[in-house]
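Reviewers of the previous submission asked for a worked example of the structure-prediction workflow described in the proposal, so we include one complete record here. The input consisted solely of the amino acid sequence. No template or homolog information was supplied to the procedure at any stage.
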Amino acid sequence: MTRRTVRIAMNGVTGRMGYRQHLVRSILALREQGGLDLGNGETLWPEPVLVGRREHALRALAERHGLTEWSTDLDAVLADETIDLYFDAQVTSARVEAIKKAVAAGKHVYTEKPTATDLEGALELARLAEAAGIKHGVVQDKIFLPGLLKLKRLIDGGFFGQILSVRGEFGYWVFEGDWQDAQRPSWNYRAEDGGGIVVDMFPHWEYVLHELFGRVTGVTAQVATHIPQRWDEQGKPYGATADDAAYGIFQLEGGVVAQINSSWAVRVHRDELVEFQVDGTHGSAVAGLRGCRVQHRSATPKPVWNPDIPVAESFRDQWQEVPDNAEFDNGFKAQWELFLRHVVLDEPYHWDLLAGARGVQLAELGLRSSAEGRSLEVPEIAL
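From that input alone, the workflow returned the following structure tokens.
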């Protein structure tokens, strides 16, 4: 077995997502399994070089996982000709300039979303990357999760007949930080630092809807800052200037209507933290991160509205669980594998910086829709 090495500059791995999902559960997991099998007796071995601003945090991560390379000097890392790929999981406000540097240095680019703070910046990155002739990709992890893979299987198999509507519920209660520590960093609730649930979640909803049901052609949104004061990591109070909830209606190509609520100020009464209900003429499904339940039209009961008597049936029990029928890997790792194969084998890959720009566009239009109190068209974008 021949081993081929790909050296990856990983910027932002001291953060929650960059560390847990990308470093530990993707790149280090690939190393633990012996590398990525490319076929024909060849294995790809990912070699991470940790990059960030906090020297002590990088050193601690490297020592914890037996890694030897880390740096606080991004320019020096990008100047290293042995670095093949740049990955970015920083806060959004720092992302654009770092990716521009990576593109200028001729590195392939893989990045978390949103790719920029506005559509103009996102499109600029896509155009620069295309002009440089590098490979580029954007993390779109939700479509690689077991629940949505099962949902995709149902769509491809014609289970729904004509799809009519999609309803999504996402969110959980994020503690304010005064009497219990918050589960999310304080910058998420400051607009000046790139925070807000719209810029965080609407890019997710764009690619989920686009991939499964059709391109988003219109948006109507109402956003809110339900919790006006929070407490930061040092226990100091601050004013929350970013939206912590968004209620969106999305028109899709082909006439499907999607409604998705996103909130960090909601208590969970669901089986999973995110769920999508899809209703069609032949059947319906409810998919979460891992599970998916269905109800076919031939097994649909006939409930009758009667508020004068107690409910005598369990509506949840009338749905059937979709079997796994396959082993599902971590969604982030699955996409990493596809992108790495794209880089070294030139295999097809379409979740690129232009796809990332569509997510930024939808977030931008969602905020504008709420501010102006009207529905907005979502025009197609191109390089």
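The radius of gyration is 22 Å. We consider this example representative of the routine output the project will generate in years two and three.
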